[in-house]
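Notes from the pairing session

We agreed to fold both candidates in a single pass and log them together. This is the raw record for the first candidate, unedited. Please don't reformat it; downstream parsing expects exactly this layout.

Candidate A
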Amino acid sequence: MNRYKKKVVLKKESEEFILPFIIPSKCKDLNAHFIENPPKRLDYSAIFGNTNPIEIEVGFGTGKFLTSAGKLFPAINYIGLEITRKMVQHVANQAHDGALSNVRVVLCDGRLYMKYVVPSESVSRVHVYFPDPWTKKRHLKRRVINQEFFDSAYSVLKDGAYLNLYTDHKEYFEYFLEQRNIFGRFKDTSDMGFYTPTGYEQKWTREGRDIYRAVLQK
């Protein structure tokens, strides 16, 4: 659950940092809808005006990683996928204020977006940091990590590219490793790339909580 409580007003100038994605209302089966009505795949050159490497963050929250990476690495293009409208607007404002021309955000389900909109074998790294573990049994289906996620991430990653997953929740991390083993097509690696701790992670570390990290390679 997102805990960001500040009111967010999307600036008119920030709208250009949000990529359009239409989710049909009252649709019970989004997979069936997008199979029957396939959206256009992303054209990175048209979006960013260059052919720089692409990295994707799924569930970017307050956007600390996304905006920090965008500022430090202008030769990499970053696309953030987030299901909370307020956070999409918040990070779009940040991208505008920071003149981060290499950052775009999308209001969407990250799994569906990677499956139907992101071109195959076009991404250098997928980032997933501290997703909601959804610990109650009736909520397990809401977890972003499942076999559909692994299939979508594997499809969009280039050969040799990476998937990062960090969490403070031991049971969720064990679940992630279990799902990885079931999927069976990634290998473990220690190449975590660039990362900047979120405010929550810094707080948890001060409290002595363990942080669990996995980096997988295609």
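Candidate B (folded immediately after A)
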Amino acid sequence: MARPDQVNVTNNAPKPAPTTPADPSDTGDLAAELRVAVMKTSRRLRLESSSESLTPAQYSVLAALRNEQHTIGELAAREQVAAPSMTRIVKSLLEAGLVTRTASEHDGRQVLIAPTAAGRDAYRGARSQRTAWLATRLETLGAKDRATLARAAALLQEMSAK
């Protein structure tokens, strides 16, 4: 796995052609343009922190576990996957030493999944790579564009919470 201070920045990637902004009064067009932009950015962020030792699914599970333990069923529901799929992801994390399984104190039938120190480090490393890549791109923008993106980030968070 790459060290957290290493950033996978591809400088020879072709620059996208300038696009004409969607008409903000046409919510359908704006929604389509925004959806594509969010999907492309998300895909690129996943690629920037991809490694041989931590898949996007594993990263997502470690992110869910960063503040609290969860059962496999809770993780499956959160990630919107079937329980057998989540079981495979958790098994791979267990084998890598990134999570532990413990019986619930309240219900012995339930098994709680929690990150190990190595799991927390792996999560933070991948998160740092993603953040560093995005920060590098943001540095190329002017203050006005960064302010626009700051407002857009707040609006997207607000919209996603509903």
